[in-house]
Amino acid sequence: MKITNAYVNITSPGRNFVTLKIETDEGIYGLGDGTLNGRELAVASYLTDHVIPCIIGRDPFQTEDIWQYLYRAPYWRRGPVTMAAIAAVDIALWDIKGKALNTPVYNLLGGKSREGMLVYCHANGKDIEHALEDVAKHQEMGYKAIRVQSGFPGLASTYGVSKKPGRYEPAERGLPSEYEWSTEIYLRHVPELFARVRETFGEELLLLHDCHHRMTPIEAGRLGKELEPFHLFWMEDPTPAELQEGFKIIRQHTTTPIAVGEVFNSIWDAHDLIRNQWIDYLRMTLVHGGGFTHLKKVADFAELYHVRTGFHGATDLSPVTMAAALHFDTAIHNFGIQEHMPHTDETDAVFPHNYSFKDGIMTPGDAPGLGVDLDEALAAKYPYQRAYLPINRKLDGTLTDW
Ligand code: GCO
Ligand code: MG
What we know:
Layout: E1 3-11, E2 17-24, E3 29-33, H1 40-55, H2 63-72, H3 80-101, E4 117-125, H4 128-140, E5 145-150, E6 172-173, E7 178-181, H5 183-201, E8 206-210, H6 217-227, E9 234-236, H7 246-253, E10 258-260, H8 271-275, E11 281-282, H9 291-304, E12 308-311, H10 319-331, E13 335-339, H11 345-350, E14 356-358, E15 361-363, H12 376-379, E16 387-388, E17 391-394, E18 399-400
Parallel strand pairs: 4-5, 4-13, 5-8, 7-17, 8-9, 9-10, 10-11, 11-12, 12-13
Antiparallel strand pairs: 1-2, 2-3, 4-15, 6-16, 14-15, 17-18
Bound molecules: D-gluconic acid and magnesium ion.
């Protein structure tokens, strides 16, 4: 089999997605996701101008060799743009393999290790009362694991809280908007939020919380310790992770489990975190982590150190990544949990798919390949629109981590 053609599709059914379609001489095609929130066109150009010309004529079954070719040959390694582009190719090639062999991708990765995946959703409110209402709503929808975020008095806006009631979507069209931040206010109120959640919903509900890289390690240690009575499933992205040894400080102070990695793009972002057992869950997912070929190696390495997966699954990860992640989650032994932020109906219509949600569990379906498609005629009705993640400033105006 040979790759005969490949092209990038950019569509914006509510938010932007970058999809790579790879076609073969046998009429089988594969889809890969290359969406990088707020930097979509950089990946599209990387693919169209630099990658696609090099893969035409190659055998789509050679996923290892093509991955190495795209990673090593350019000399310039790693980085989110490069790795999202490599992931788009890799995901599409595994889709082709599955279709050619008439089997779901999970069968190529080890077969079923479980029947379905525990997923967590995102509940939020402008204050604690509204957050509690949203938790109740998600519990009624069947979720057994809920990440809870809330606004707090003294902060006009904060990460994870929808500006308008309804779905949370972090990217906004136009230029970046500005949010404000105070770690002092945040730390004062988060324990109260989780005390109220436990009091209202009891012990059985699995609870998560996203700190979105906003604390120093010692601040995160304090928060983890104060949240211990509420038994969180995890505390997510407590501190920016360029300095991996920062996590040692957090670990020394708390037994609250730690998840990190939605912005990672290779094993080298997580190597020390894993081998020192400073984290419990790795969030780097297929689109930003170089696809199946790289992440399978990372997950196998993590398994040796009792680190489980907890893949990022926000709305900026397209249905192609969602499908791919569910195949991966099905097959690996050290699966932990999967994030699920449902897409809009417009997005679901552009990407018809076989995966499904029921009673807090998701399954990838049994269609050959990934079981996800792209309706190109419908996609064309939603042209790209520039959008960015917001930026974040402390109350004195200092730019800080979003
Ligand atoms: C999450 C995330 C997101 C990110 C977004 C960035 O855990 O779901 O933190 O909401 O901010 O995916 O593109
Ligand atoms: Mg997060």
